[in-house]
Fold:
Amino acid sequence: MSTQAIETSAAPMEQAPPQNLAEPCLLPEKKVSPWNSLEVVKLLVSSLMAVAIAFTGYGVTKYFRDQDEAKARRDAIQQLSRAILERRVRSEMLASSIRRHAKEPVATSLEEVVRRKKEYDDAYASWNTNIKAHMTSLR
Structure:
């Protein structure tokens, strides 16, 4: 086969350029997917950002809630400790007054016993009034 035959057989396969530039090229159109790599990355980032914000919000809220609960427990423990100490101190002061009055019964020592008895009764009443609230707040 000669080179001329090869040239003529190759010629029909080639397309001639369009004569009029206004005419569209008849090449098949390539389908463009709307999901190129940039769009996929943007979708992933926006989804993960929403998840990250939700987890961060939950963590911060839980941290502050735990801090509030810890503070409330500390305050409840302090209030209960104060109530226990006040009752103990008042009872010791009353016992001291009773002992002193028993050794030397005078009018001033009797007044002291009555005053300290009233103070102890107030502490005891406060204890009985607030003990359930203290125990509930400790839970």
Remarks:
- The radius of gyration is 47 Å.
- The chain has a mean pLDDT of 82.
- Helices lie at 3-10, 37-103, 107-138.
